[in-house]
């Protein structure tokens, strides 16, 4: 059968992520697909073939080994591991973590750390393991409910395979996003339907067919994961994002969030210029002033009520059509952030008075590609939304029911 990697059922990414370290990083910052050692290369010519003559990559004698380690340069193009020049060790924390959802045994008894969905349902989550097991059981720690090892299966090879023969593999971070979205959609964590979906859509030659994990995942899903340059964000932690909290702190609000005096007021340095220039949107005419603009004749309270029902696109059109909406209250952009970027759940916990929401919204919209964890979170969020859409459809169609003997 040969080597075969197990992938996360929710995000489609392997657990066998590897990494090339930079020359200034310690040896433990590199590992191969097994999670140990390092990525080796036989000779200089092989390095040039993979990465090019001017990549900056080098071969280094690894301490305690006769093999040569591939050290990533700024232009590293290796598909054997992600380059330390493109993604930091901190960003990759947890990329190899794997846990499984498994069905309770008849002798299952509660434990103090059980979650509500475990107590009330027929499934529980194991401890955490490392990497993608190859034709062997996954060892997990701690051994929750006496389970120290489990078969991790993301594919069912035929309809006759025992549905309880293996656990449903997920990244702990992806499962946290699933729980959040499931509660938001259904009001509870629907692990039962998730497990059934794995059986229905996890049959050989059916799983992943047309599933929107994204082009990058489809491209990288080979027998061995292809660590294609440019796809480093797939290995970034989507929960603990180093720069996200700092982004919120950097946009602290120095004026009332209900003020309209500073919105759309910029200071910037044009390309090629040496002086800082400014731009300010002209303020709206006084409410009730003589004008043919019907919106300007409305009291400000009604103007704000209209805004409350508008999407970002609606507001853009309003600003083009009426001077009454040239300036907008800063706090409006908190709502737009939550609506346009619902995966930014940290926003829900921030005092509305503490952040300049316009600046934050603008930065989040334009700079999120520079935060690999946030980029990955958005992708996973959308993939899990599609999972929930399928669960919802299967339940409506009667394909998934609360009957555990469905298949």
Automatic annotation (TrEMBL):
A Pfam family the protein falls into: F-box
Chain coiled-coil ranges: none
Location of region: Disordered: 274-293
Domain F-box: 292-336
Name of this chain's protein: F-box domain-containing protein
Lineage: Eukaryota, Fungi, Dikarya, Ascomycota, Pezizomycotina
């Amino acid at each position: 059968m040969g080597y075969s990697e197990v992938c996360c059922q929710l995000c489609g990414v392997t657990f066998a992520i590897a990494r090339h370290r930079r020359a200034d990083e310690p040896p433990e910052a590199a590992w191969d697909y097994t999670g140990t050692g390092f990525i080796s290369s036989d000779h200089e010519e092989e390095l040039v073939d993979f990465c090019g003559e001017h990549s900056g990559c080098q071969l280094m004698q690894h301490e305690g080994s006769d093999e040569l380690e591939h050290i990533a340069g700024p232009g590293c193009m290796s598909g054997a591991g992600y380059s330390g020049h493109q993604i930091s060790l901190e960003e990759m924390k947890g990329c190899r973590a794997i846990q499984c959802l498994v069905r309770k045994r008849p002798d299952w008894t509660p434990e103090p750390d059980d979650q509500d969905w475990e107590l009330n349902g027929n499934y529980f989550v194991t401890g955490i393991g490392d990497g993608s097991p190859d034709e062997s059981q996954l060892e997990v720690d701690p051994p929750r409910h006496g389970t120290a090892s489990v078969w991790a299966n993301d594919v069912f090879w035929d309809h006759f395979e025992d549905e309880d023969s293996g656990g449903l593999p997920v990244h702990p971070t992806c499962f946290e996003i699933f729980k959040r979205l499931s509660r938001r959609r259904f009001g509870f964590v629907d692990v039962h339907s998730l497990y059934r979906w794995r059986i229905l859509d996890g049959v050989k030659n059916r799983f992943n067919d047309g599933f929107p994990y994204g082009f990058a995942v489809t491209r990288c899903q080979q027998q061995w994961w292809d660590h294609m340059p440019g796809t480093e964000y797939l290995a970034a932690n989507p929960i603990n994002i180093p720069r996200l909290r700092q982004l919120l702190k950097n946009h602290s609000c120095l004026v009332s969030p209900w003020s309209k005096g500073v919105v759309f007021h910029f200071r910037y340095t044009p390309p090629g210029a040496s002086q800082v220039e400014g731009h300010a949107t002209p303020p709206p005419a006084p409410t009730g002033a003589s004008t043919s603009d019907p919106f300007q004749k409305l009291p400000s309270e009604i103007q704000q009520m209209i805004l409350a029902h508008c999407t970002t696109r609606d507001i853009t059109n309003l600003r083009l059509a009426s001077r009454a909406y040239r300036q907008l209250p800063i706090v409006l952009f908190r709502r737009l952030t939550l609506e346009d970027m619902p995966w930014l759940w940290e926003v829900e916990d921030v005092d509305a008075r503490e952040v300049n929401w316009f600046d934050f919204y603008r930065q989040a919209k334009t700079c999120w590609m520079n935060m690999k964890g946030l980029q990955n979170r958005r992708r996973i969020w959308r993939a899990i939304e599609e999972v929930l859409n399928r669960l919802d459809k299967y339940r409506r169609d009667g394909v998934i029911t609360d009957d555990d003997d469905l298949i």
